[in-house]
């Protein structure tokens, strides 16, 4: 036996030193044998310590494990952190590593590294299933025992008992003390090795304890005798109990640079590349020492023996020698491990790793280690065949090599069900060891603070508070969360699929996970959620609740597109394994557009992204418990959630939310490889974040060190992002301040006005030519006399009125009462004061009312604006066009109108003629209505900014009106003051025109009476003395005067009696025979046909119908954008936040707002505003159309018709359809910029966030803001335009018919007067007077 150990020791150390000396055979006692073995062991260790003396000079070339394995000394924090977490997991009492080994190497599993055997020691009692692993030695390992002519060739070794660790301390730097103290068992303390190792930077220290260990040696033993040789195949077992590995140091000298550049292909195709690549990076790999102790060395067991000569053998010389050693000299067993076993391991390492080239000297086709390609161009312009050869095909990728091992490991050790639990093994292998059954997130995991949640700031996961001050909003807020628990994480159930290839899609793979059992659902618990909003006067909300969400069978299906370039993956450098840019660089890079929008070109497909994403929950229970709740609705919510219907609604709602969220990530086109149209803002069909992923892929090569495009000074492509961000901002800006919108409508109006002007000029030109032709060729002397007579009478009338009348202020009390003469200037000045008050005071205020769980907080005066201040602010904000319109219609014109009226009131006729005064008053009266544009715009703004965010009514788990946010524009004194001033201005204008006409009428009547008296006297004089009446008539111009305004006719009948026409005579306008002034035949007339009368009736009915229809149909719509718009959509089942408004709906909304405000002042003001709006847009246009129809069809006297004309004039001034239409145009044009200016200034800190949301495709560009509204013209407005046109046509037709009727009546009267004058002339004048008269005819 003494001879055996030295020979074994000598043979096992041949490679290391050929100078080892055998121990002399000695028959001394056991004590002497032990001393000799110990001396031999010391010599071996001395050799180990003295080799490679020059290694210290090259330490800097190798990986420094002293730093890498020590977090305090490491520069590479990421890798060290990973190693440290791994050590923390596997080191300790051995349960973690036993669990892993059980999962991978127990007989119920398929071993990936060797054969799995379930065995127990023959001499050990009740041994449980033991995990083992086998190592094959292809060429065998020769053991020359030097006894009995026996040679041993070791072919394989199986190591068993690997799941019996009781103490583990692996991957430790050799200079660090390994503390293996076990408080429960002091005998498990492992002493630290006292050996001083050279080059400690390259040494990894390990030690552990095991309950049992066995080695199954499979060998071929050849026994040579004089009669021949016998070859036996032997399988034996060496069992041990209570193993203590005090020290197991490994010297691993890895070249740093070579290690960093180890390619991924060496691992993926390890059979062809691993050893070749390892040879380039490993300078030395050696097991230095096996300092091992055994509590019990059992007898070796012969498992099997088979000889080539069919000899029945039960033993062999090698087995006998081993048995003698184990039984006779147990102290030599550790030496056997530290020499023979260790040398076997080292020789295998050397032959299979360090000296692999020696086996391939005659192989000219030796493979080379993969390298990263310098240039790889793969894009969709390549033909399919060449592209497929360059990309990883997942259908075959997992069929061999490391990918196959990983996939097989995942399927068998993670996805497969555990027999003991019936659940997938991933729960035991991954989740429980690394995460645990439950996970708690809190401020201090060791805290047991049970104090009131809002009385302490300690130990909270979230604790934030502050003050919100935005405009008139002033509130304190607090938000706290004590902790969040995720329970029953280890409840993954089938189906589970990981990295599952898809037959039809070579570049896609599927992943599916399902979690949550019915009896143990996955739960998320939020403990002590406290939220409060506190104000001084406007209410408060303060609640503390606990929330629990239980989810059963939550399923997620994710299909990935990942086009990996094969050469890049195989050449991937291990040093960059933590560099995300390098991982992205192995994926096919899509080509982006050339205009720096960062969008894939039209012919490019997705190379990295999602093809499909589906998430669902079989059942979800939501429970809310109130701890302290000030909101009554929270208690109601908690009780409602106890019902089954509410929980079903929770499940349905959560699935809808998951469906919406997952739809954001999935391309809209089912076939992701189809070509998609390019959009400069967003790639059509792409899922959420796809644009950013494409940019990351393009930037990856510049940020990956082993890429040929690597630029160490490169930073993320801010140019692309800034360009896209600026484009996003500009798209919002262009959307809001749309000058194109103004140009479009302005062009339409300009074209219409141009056409109207062309028609008017054409008509004027034709009329002018016809009139000229009429005067030159067709007019008779009688007609010339009439024209001359009319012109003279107009001139005389003007002169007479100017001479006999005074200013409105200085008129007599009979004409203008005293209180009117002095009161009107006061009213005008007071009206100016009202306009100033309206423009300088608050015109409106934006209020916000928040209702949550039956508690209400009101923020008044969130934003205040007046006409003056808002005009300046809008100008500064960029809305110059709107500011100019407001300035003209609301700032300049009202004061101009009042000042003009005041001047006209005081100016005498000598400075301002009667006719000009009347013209100015009529124009001012007609233009007064246009000052109402700003009021109508505010009315539209009230409708536009009336935003209501309410809780969805289709959610069965929420109480009705659980939450609501109301934003509304409240009219203030400024608006009412401006409205009152407008009404007073228009009413006073009517009074001024009335008194102006009264003065003219009275002056005209006086002149008429005087003229009639003079005519009578002159007739008497002519009959008595034959005076030249023509000269007398010319010397008394008042005799030619006629009161046109009253249509008073004074003529002499056949008997010469002077009489006035009968004002009580009725006539019908529709039956009147209208004469043609340009015809010579005085008897030729025009009579309206019967169908025209029916058309007039039809027109009146259609006009009324179009007005009513236009007021009922939506005339404009308001679409809300931004975060508020999304919130509005959430309350209406995510339908677009578009609100249609008509005249009727605006009136209803204003009354609802009055009820909402519940204030007597608001009731009165809004009611007056409503009545004004409704009457001027709906009621008065209908009344005017009725008035015009009555004028046309009813028989009226001259006085009645005059009154009807005045009434129609007043109604025309008070119908505001045109004003409303123009206000619609202005509002729809500028609502966008005004709304953004009002609110988005408060969201400037979120601009970067909004830009990223647009960049990732979550938000549309128009929603990348807090709040914005955009108005659009709807069909109702076009109906109102049509009604305004019809009303204008009807008014023009009837008014001109009335004027023409009066004109011909006047002409008939004048004809009679001329005939009467001619009779007088024939008696008292000569024919020369006729020549003088004819020469005085002027061209009209």
TrEMBL record:
Query: Keyword Transmembrane: yes or no?
Result: yes
Q: Which residues form the U-box domain?
A: 1-24
Domain of life from the UniProt record: Eukaryota
Locations of Acidic residues compositional bias? Answer: 22-33
BP-aspect Gene Ontology terms: protein ubiquitination
Instruction: Please give the residue ranges the record annotates as the region Disordered.
Output: 1-35, 1010-1035, 1317-1340
- What protein does this entry describe? U-box domain-containing protein
What organism does the record attribute this protein to?
A: Fragilariopsis cylindrus CCMP1102
């Amino acid at each position: 036996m003494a001879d055996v150990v030295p020979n074994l020791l000598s043979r096992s150390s041949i490679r290391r030193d050929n100078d080892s000396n055998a121990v002399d055979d000695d028959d001394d006692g056991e004590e002497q044998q032990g001393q000799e073995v110990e001396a031999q062991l010391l010599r071996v260790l001395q050799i180990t310590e003295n080799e490679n003396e020059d290694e210290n000079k090259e330490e800097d070339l190798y990986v420094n494990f002293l730093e890498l394995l020590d977090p305090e000394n490491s520069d590479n924090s990421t890798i060290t952190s990973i190693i440290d977490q791994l050590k923390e997991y596997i080191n300790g009492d051995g349960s973690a590593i036993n669990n892993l080994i059980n999962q991978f190497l127990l007989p119920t599993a398929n071993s990936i590294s060797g054969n799995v055997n379930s065995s127990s020691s023959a001499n050990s009692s009740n041994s449980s299933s033991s995990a083992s692993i086998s190592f094959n030695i292809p060429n065998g390992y020769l053991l020359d025992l030097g006894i009995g002519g026996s040679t041993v060739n070791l072919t394989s070794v199986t190591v068993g008992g690997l799941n019996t660790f009781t103490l583990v301390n692996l991957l430790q730097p050799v200079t660090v003390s390994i503390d293996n103290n076990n408080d429960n068992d002091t005998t498990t303390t492992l002493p630290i090795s006292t050996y001083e190792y050279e080059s400690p930077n390259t040494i990894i220290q390990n030690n552990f304890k095991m309950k049992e260990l066995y080695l199954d040696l499979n060998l071929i033993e050849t026994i040579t005798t004089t009669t021949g040789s016998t070859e036996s195949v032997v399988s034996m077992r060496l069992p041990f109990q209570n193993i203590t590995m005090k020290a197991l140091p490994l010297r691993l000298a890895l070249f740093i640079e070579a290690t960093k550049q180890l390619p991924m292909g060496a691992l993926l195709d390890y059979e062809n590349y691993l050893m070749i690549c390892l040879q380039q990076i490993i300078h030395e790999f050696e097991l230095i020492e096996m300092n091992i102790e055994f509590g019990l060395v059992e007898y070796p067991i012969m498992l099997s023996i088979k000889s080539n000569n069919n000899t029945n053998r039960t033993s062999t010389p090698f087995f006998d020698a081993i048995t003698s050693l184990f039984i006779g000299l147990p102290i030599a067993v550790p030496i056997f491990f530290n020499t023979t076993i260790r040398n076997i391991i080292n020789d295998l390492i050397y032959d299979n790793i360090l000296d692999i080239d020696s086996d391939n000297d005659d192989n000219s086709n030796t493979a080379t280690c993969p390298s990263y390609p310098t240039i790889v161009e793969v894009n969709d312009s390549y033909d399919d065949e060449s592209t497929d050869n360059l990309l990883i095909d997942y259908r075959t990728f997992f069929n061999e090599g490391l990918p196959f091992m990983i996939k097989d490991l995942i399927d068998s050790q993670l996805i497969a069900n555990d027999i003991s639990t019936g659940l997938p093994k991933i729960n035991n292998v991954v989740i429980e060891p690394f995460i645990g059954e439950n996970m708690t997130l809190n401020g201090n995991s060791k805290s047991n603070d049970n104090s009131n949640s809002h009385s302490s700031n300690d130990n909270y996961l979230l604790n934030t508070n502050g003050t919100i001050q935005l405009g008139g909003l002033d509130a304190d807020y607090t938000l706290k969360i004590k902790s969040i628990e995720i329970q029953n994480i280890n409840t993954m159930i089938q189906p589970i699929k990981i990295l599952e290839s898809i037959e039809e899609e070579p570049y896609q793979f599927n992943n599916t996970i399902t979690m949550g059992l019915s009896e143990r659902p996955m739960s998320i618990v939020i403990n002590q959620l406290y939220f409060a909003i506190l104000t001084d006067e406007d209410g408060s909300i303060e609640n503390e609740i606990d929330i629990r969400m239980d989810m059963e069978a939550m399923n997620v299906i994710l299909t990935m597109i990942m086009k990996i370039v094969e050469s890049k993956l195989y050449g991937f450098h291990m040093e960059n394994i933590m560099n995300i840019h390098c991982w992205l660089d192995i994926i096919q890079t899509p080509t982006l557009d050339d205009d720096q929008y960062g969008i894939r070109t039209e012919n490019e497909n997705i190379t990295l992204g999602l093809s499909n994403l589906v998430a669902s929950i079989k059942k979800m229970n939501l429970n809310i418990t109130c701890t302290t709740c000030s909101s009554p609705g929270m208690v109601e919510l908690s009780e409602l959630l106890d019902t089954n219907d509410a929980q079903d609604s929770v499940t349905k709602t959560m699935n809808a939310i998951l469906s919406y969220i997952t739809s954001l990530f999935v391309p809209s086109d089912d076939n992701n490889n189809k070509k998609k149209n390019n959009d400069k803002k967003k790639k059509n069909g792409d899922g959420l974040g796809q644009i950013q992923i494409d940019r990351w892929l393009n930037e990856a090569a510049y940020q990956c060190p082993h890429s040929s495009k690597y630029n160490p000074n490169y930073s993320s492509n801010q140019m692309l992002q800034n360009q896209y961000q600026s484009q996003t901002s500009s798209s919002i800006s262009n959307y809001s301040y749309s000058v194109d919108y103004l140009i479009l409508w302005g062009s339409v109006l300009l074209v219409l006005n141009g056409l109207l002007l062309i028609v008017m000029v054409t008509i004027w030109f034709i009329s002018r030519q016809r009139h000229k032709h009429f005067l030159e060729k067709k007019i008779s002397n009688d007609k010339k006399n009439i024209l001359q007579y009319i012109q003279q009478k107009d001139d005389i009338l003007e002169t007479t009125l100017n001479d006999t009348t005074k200013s409105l202020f200085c008129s007599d009390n009979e004409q203008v009462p005293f209180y009117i003469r002095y009161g009107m200037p006061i009213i005008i000045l007071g009206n100016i004061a009202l306009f100033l008050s309206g423009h300088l005071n608050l015109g409106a205020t934006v209020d916000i009312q928040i209702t949550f769980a039956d508690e209400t907080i009101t923020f008044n005066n969130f934003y205040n604006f007046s006409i003056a201040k808002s005009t300046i602010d809008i100008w500064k904000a960029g809305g110059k066009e709107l500011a100019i319109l407001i300035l003209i219609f609301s700032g300049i014109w009202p004061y101009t109108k009042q000042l003009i009226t005041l001047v006209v009131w005081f100016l005498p006729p000598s400075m301002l003629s009667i006719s000009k005064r009347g013209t100015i008053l009529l124009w001012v009266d007609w233009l007064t209505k246009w000052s109402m544009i700003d009021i109508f715009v505010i009315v539209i703004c009230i409708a536009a900014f009336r935003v209501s965010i309410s809780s969805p009514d289709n959610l069965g788990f929420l109480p009705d009106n659980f939450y609501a946010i109301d934003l509304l524009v409240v009219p203030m004194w400024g608006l009412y003051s401006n409205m009152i001033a407008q009404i007073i201005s228009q009413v006073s204008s009517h009074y001024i025109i009335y008194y102006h006409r009264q003065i003219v009428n009275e002056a005209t009547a006086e002149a008429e009476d005087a003229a009639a008296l003079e005519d009578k006297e002159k007739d008497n004089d002519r009959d008595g003395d034959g005076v030249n009446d023509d000269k007398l008539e010319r010397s008394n111009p008042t005799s030619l005067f006629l009161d046109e305004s009253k249509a008073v006719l004074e003529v002499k009948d056949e008997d010469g009696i002077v009489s006035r026409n009968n004002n009580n005579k009725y006539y019908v306008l529709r039956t009147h025979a209208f004469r043609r002034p340009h015809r010579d035949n005085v008897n030729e007339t025009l009579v309206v046909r019967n169908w025209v009368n029916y058309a007039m009736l039809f027109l009146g009915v259609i006009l009324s119908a179009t007005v009513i229809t236009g007021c009922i149909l939506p005339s404009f719509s308001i679409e809300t954008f931004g975060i508020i718009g999304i919130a509005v959509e959430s309350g209406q089942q995510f339908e677009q936040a578009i609100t249609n408004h008509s005249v009727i709906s605006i009136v209803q909304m204003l009354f609802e707002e009055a009820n909402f405000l519940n204030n007597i002042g608001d009731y009165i003001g809004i009611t007056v505003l409503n009545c004004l709006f409704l009457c001027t847009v709906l009621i008065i246009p209908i009344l005017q159309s009725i008035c015009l129809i009555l004028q046309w069809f009813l028989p009226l006297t001259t006085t009645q018709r005059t009154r009807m004309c005045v009434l129609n004039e007043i109604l025309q001034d008070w119908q505001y359809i045109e004003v409303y239409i123009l206000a619609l145009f202005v509002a729809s044009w500028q609502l966008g910029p005004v709304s953004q200016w009002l609110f988005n200034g408060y969201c400037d800190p979120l601009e970067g966030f909004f830009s990223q949301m647009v960049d990732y495709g979550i938000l549309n560009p128009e929603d990348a803001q807090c709040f914005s509204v955009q108005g659009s013209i709807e069909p109702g407005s076009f109906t109102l335009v049509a009604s305004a046109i019809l009303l204008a046509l009807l008014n023009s037709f009837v008014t001109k018919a009335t004027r023409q009727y009066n004109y011909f009546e006047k002409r008939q009267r004048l004809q009679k007067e001329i005939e009467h004058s001619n009779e007088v002339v024939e008696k008292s004048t000569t024919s020369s007077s006729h020549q003088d008269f004819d020469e005085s005819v002027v061209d009209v």
